[in-house]
Amino acid sequence: MQVNKSSNALKSGAIWGFIVLELIFFSIAGEFLSLSDKAFMDTENMLLLLKQSAPIGIIAMGMTLVMVNGNIDLSVGATFAIAAMILLDSMTWTVFAGLGDWVIPVAWVLALAVGTLLGALNGLIVWKTGVDAFIVTLGSMLGFRGLVFMVNGENPTSHLNWTLVDFAEAKFLGFATATWFLLAVTLVIWFIMAKTVHGRNAYAIGNNREAAVNAGIRVGPHMVINFAIIGFLAALSAVVFYSESGSVNPNDGQLYELWVITAVVLGGTKITGGAGSVIGTLGGVIAIQLLRKGLGHIGADTSTVNLVIGLILIAVLVLDRQLNVRGKEELKV
Amino acid sequence: MTDPVLRLENIVKTFPGVRALDGVSFSVMPGEVHALMGENGAGKSTSMKVLGGIYQPDSGDIFMGEKKVTMSGPLEAKSMGIVFIHQELSLAEELSVAENIYLGELPRKSFGRVDWARLADQTNAILKKLNVSFDAKTRVGDLSIANQQMVEIARALTVDAKAVIFDEPTASLTDAEKVVLFDVIADLKADGVGIIYISHRMEEIFKITDRISILRDGQYQGTVVTADTNEEAVTQMMIGRALDLSRNATHHDLGDVALEVRGLSCGKLYQDVSFEVRRGEVVGFYGLIGAGRTEIAETLFGLRDPSSGQILLDGQEVRLHSPADAIARGISLVPEDRKGQGLILGMSCRDNMTLPQVDTLKAGPFVAERAEIDIFDQYRARLDIRTPSWKTQAGNLSGGNQQKIVIGKWLSMQPKVLIVDEPTRGIDVGSKSEIHKLLRELAAQGYAVMIISSEMPEVLHVSDRIVAMYSGRIMRTFTSDEVTEDNLIQAISGIKSGQAA
Amino acid sequence: MATMTKQQIGGILARQGILIAFAVFMIAFTFANPKFLSVDNVLSVVRSSAILGVMALGVTFVVIGGNLDLSVGSMMSFSTIVVLDLHDSIGPFLAIPAMFAMTLCLGAFIGFLVGYLRLNSLIVTLGMLSAIHGLTLTYSGGKNMDIADKEGTWFSVFGQGTALGIPVPILMFIALAAFLGIVLAKTAFGRKVYAVGGNGTAATFSGIRRARTVFLCYLLSSGCVATAGLMQASRSLGSQNTVGQGLELGVLAAVILGGASLLGGSGTIFKTVIGVLILGFIQNGLLLMGLQFYVQFVVTWVIIILAVWLDIAAKRGKLWSPLA
Question: Start and end of every ABC transporter domain (chain B) (predicted)?
Fold first, then answer.
């Protein structure tokens, strides 16, 4: 028992320790290798880092909920692209021509609604057909991407609304709009998971599904709600990001699921469900972003980032395995 | 006379290849502790699953009071006031004690929030009644198995229960914890709750129950008043005449020592275990669950590394690092968990049977399927395995036939030492006595046989010698002449011979 | 007994379901466009499916063994880039075995992690997807790789050659499928793969070395990926770093369509080949009907979910999940 407890404590703290290590490493290495004169731990640089963490981070919060619930969602990148497409395209629709800047909230609501619906659709299929979430969302990853193309063809969609850009580029108390969104989402999902009946039931389902069913918890609706939430957050992520950039390519958001799942697993969420927290996930998101920025800072290119992140993900699993070995007397199966 | 809280009438339930329940009827009065007894596979847990709505009966009725009810699932059973204390723990380990006790019924505040304060108060009140050492916020995964069982029991106290079903609740409890459990049962009884108590332990049954209903092979054998009966009469009803469980009286010449274990220990699982098994001998290992018997078998089969001690085969010390090592040296293990460890349910009977020798049965680069079918046919005939064809998936056979496939699998390896762990758990009486006969025959042919069993009549029936274990240690080894039920029970309860009155 | 036969009937229906769906599609497409079933068109579909198909053969072993492989796409990019680069530096004779050796090392690494260290295969191969992509970019320096003398090399035979009037990629696919089909169905190794995927614990209790079996599945899969990389490199004689990106999804889709359960223990090479062909013919049929390439994404989505759903429904005897 004791070993178990300490390893749990170690695990929940590990990601923040890792972040500190990264900061020290890149600060020192940066002195020798960096091309710029700026220190790595420059405030401006750190604030930018938080802002850049937002698109992945917002989705990762939803993924934490879905994975704790015992499912997985591979379709978030495609949902992200659809929402972005709806957001930018709807602002040019003639029905909304008379709205002026009021078209912005309308476009936001439309994009978020589409994301939520697609998420709920995934959840409904998982619930009603009994097909594993991995397969369902693997399919919809393809299908949703197909929808993006069908809606808008193969060309990028662009629309810059300057009011929107101003909003997205605004800063409040030093934090960018995107950062505020990330923090707000983290807080809300933390509240849901730690404080609400729905959140606690989600843990119970992921932890021991049969026990949850026997206790009369309605597993299906909980799953649908969680998939709807991650769909909503994938759309919110797109809304936050594309308000500023104003142009979306149909292939945008590809491999997002990879980054998001990496962040969630780094943050200590159990792959099989039942354990995990958004605080750990926030750590995972920041750790990944630090790594990308840090490697850039010391002159490494994107190829190294991919290599390092992949290997770190595996190293975390190996470490976790070593911490959980119960000793020699364990049954060797 | 008051109405029963719960009444089952003529329940029938069939599964592919087996008639699990064949006319089960009994009733539980308010304030009664009603024992449900029967051997493994007699239909106790199936009856309870019908009662809980997990299975729907083919025919027959369930009444609560006057009213006929249909159970559509666990939720409905719960809403009617039927509470189950499961034998297999059904807890969410990552959650707290309080959340587990109120699983599915967490108290709410506004915005769907959990009312933690109320939850803690309610939970602590229940825990106080149970007199346990942990509190509401403890993570269940950090509790001992016995304490987890107490959490399971605490669940029963949260609802306005009309009937509570205890399924082997004392299997992992210490004596002190049992006392607490019996107090809880007495309280429920005083409140007029009807209690169904499933257990194999005669001592408990005669201590706390009012009436006993007995099942055998899915058939209802009758209900007796506990005060008017005794252990023999109940055993007689449970076992019937079909099963010969007389003492083993065969004496034949024993051969050399095939397997010897000296001072073997494996961490906390068992310590300083020494014994030998001769050719032609059946050695029974008897003890409570958790006494370390299965773990010894797993060590001998290369699945656990011992922390100290020696294993000798034919006088030679061996080190067994994997089942492949053990198999190569002539050890076979028929494991405890037939479905989890013994069989690949989606594979054909033939492929299951020849799996350990698939590397050696070769025709050129391929598996020699003709030879496989020959082996299968040979053991199908010898063990009387009833299956439509070798192609049938193992998962579609009845428990007894599945077990025979596993036994055939290991006999076909021609082992020197055959270890069987709970070989008759959950199978019908007919197959049971066939397996007993087979084990005796194998010994007569010169095999060294180790049998682990939790059923005393079985151990007494087949063994030449009996090793009694308690809490990871061998307490005493009996020859079939000196063993009695009393001294065997004492040995496995941790009472050293001579200390007992 | 009655339930058993019902189950068997359900099982047969589910098995044949894929073939029936396949037949229906073929007939519908043929009505829509008679050219669909012409020899030229069929050959071109099989040929364009061959690379994905060869990868799917390997992944079938991994999936039957109870694991996943999401890294085959980026591993295929790696093989393609490496063999193209080495072609000009050490010549094709040495380039091919060198590339195979390097790709097999990657497979061995994954096999070690999943087999011997017992790590979760989904996360390991997700990490390897990223890591191998990084490795490829580092190797190539981010540049496209081209063979200098495209006319004068025999290397193009694996992608562009024909033998007996049949394109070489098709022959390679058929030969490999036949070979691996026999390995899976008839050898001791194949039997162990089913056992380990069906019930790993029981397999261990039967003396099967589970770790080694899983390891060999990944090694075999990487061998198939290397073959696919060779075919890709030979067909185009030049390549981007991302040539295999996303292929892991098509591969998994084909294997799942073929009816292999992601839980392991079931599936066959023949069914995977059917899965590959279904995907290929749907893509082709939709294009012949004048639809855009992305329509196939949506159609594939629907088909995958329907296929797996019907399979599960047949097993449980109910269309809808009883989950509350």
Answer: 6-242, 252-496
